[in-house]
Amino acid sequence: MSRSPSPSPGRRNLLLAGGAIGATALLAGCSDDSGSRPDAAGARAGEERLRTRGARDSAALLARYDATADAHPKLADRLRPLREETARHLEAFRAPASAPASPSSASPSASASPSASAGATRVPDVPKDEKKALAALARAERHTADTRTAALRDAPPELARLLASIAACGAAHAYLLTSGNS
């Protein structure tokens, strides 16, 4: 049996050197290079934009929950806990960046009246069929969760945790809205 020749020392050294260069480049990308970071004011403005968008999206979801419950009163009890969580999400995004809101400390009815949540938000059209109305609400939850997930890359760590948590909650809402509706 013949064995294939092992790589020559030159080839082995070349591979090791290439790996070392790649590792060095990777570590350099992870280093604290303050020259490429935005200034503190720019970072705060970016965080504020993400919080504003999060609040706007939560307000739009609240308006959709309210419109769906108004169009289909039989669904109101089923939608209430999901709607209350969405109201807490809105308050979390509205909380000052330096003092994040605790989801358990926000009142479920805070900014939760139909007029308050729909104030600046257009009242969405709700399908006349209950299953289609729930499916439309689930699509809105999924879309908002996807938007929040995409925003993670631009968010500072604390806001990224909030966005990730609320995106996961929105995905769970979408599942709950469609489970048992086949």
Give structural notes.
There is one protein chain. The protein has 182 residues and is mainly alpha-helical. The chain is built from 6 helices and no strands. α2 runs antiparallel to α3 and α2 packs antiparallel against α5 (130-151). The longest helix has 32 residues, at 40-71. The termini are far apart. Residues 12-36 and 100-119 have low confidence and may be disordered.
Straight-line N-to-C gap: 63 Å
Please state the average pLDDT score.
Answer: 77
Helix- and strand-based class?
Answer: mainly alpha
Total of DSSP H or I helical runs spanning 4+ residues: 6
Strand element count: 0
- Secondary-structure element order, N to C: HHHHHH
What characteristic shape results from the CA principal axes? elongated
Sheet having the most strands: none
Low-confidence stretches: 12-36, 100-119
Helix content: 55-70%
Return Rg in Å: 24 Å
Strand content: under 5%
Please give a quick description of this structure.
This protein is an all-alpha fold and 182 residues long. It is built from 6 helices and no strands.
